[in-house]
Structure formats: C-alpha cells, structure tokens
Design brief:
The N and C termini lie far apart (76 Å). Helix 2 packs across helix 3. The protein has 92 residues and is mainly alpha-helical. It has one domain.
C-alpha cells in the first residue's frame, strides 16, 4: 500500500514540476529581433524590387501594399480628427 502512495506522490510531483516550469517559461518576456532587422529587410526588399522577374514583381506588390496601408492609416487619423471636431461643434 505504501508503494502505491509513493508512486502517486512522485507522479504528482513530476506533473507539478513540469507545469511550474512551463508556467515560468511562458511568463518570461519575449524579446523581438524585428528592431534589429528593420534596415536589412528594407535593403533586401529594395534589391528584390530592382531585380525584376517574378520576385521583383512580388516585392513591388509588397511595397505598394505597405504604402497603401500607411495612406489608409493617415486617412483614418484624419477621419478621427474630423469626428472629434464635429462632436465638439455639436454635430451627431
């Protein structure tokens, strides 16, 4: 009877240790390398755009989409500003 109790205690201990280790590793802050790779990615995209062919076309499409996204974000900020002004003037 005591052997079963010891085995169950060991199993519970192992599960507890594994869960605790996973929880601790999961709660550690993750560091991103995007800030360090920003310039390199831009240079590679520029070279790919200039190379022509299908890779160049895809790179141009990616650049165009990024530019459009920036423009849409700028327009959205302008719309938000207009809504605030309209609300301040008593509009609905």
């Amino acid at each position: 009877m005591s052997r079963k109790i010891i085995l169950n205690s060991v199993r519970i201990g192992i599960v507890t240790v594994v869960f605790s280790a996973g929880y601790i590793c999961g709660s550690l802050p993750k560091q991103s390398a995007n800030a360090q790779m920003g310039d390199i990615g831009g240079e590679m995209l520029k070279k790919a755009t200039e190379s022509g062919g299908s890779l160049g076309s895809v790179a141009q499409l990616g650049t165009a989409i990024t530019d459009m996204e920036k423009n849409v974000s700028g327009l959205q900020k302008n719309l938000d500003t207009l809504k605030k002004v309209k609300a301040a003037l008593g509009g609905h």
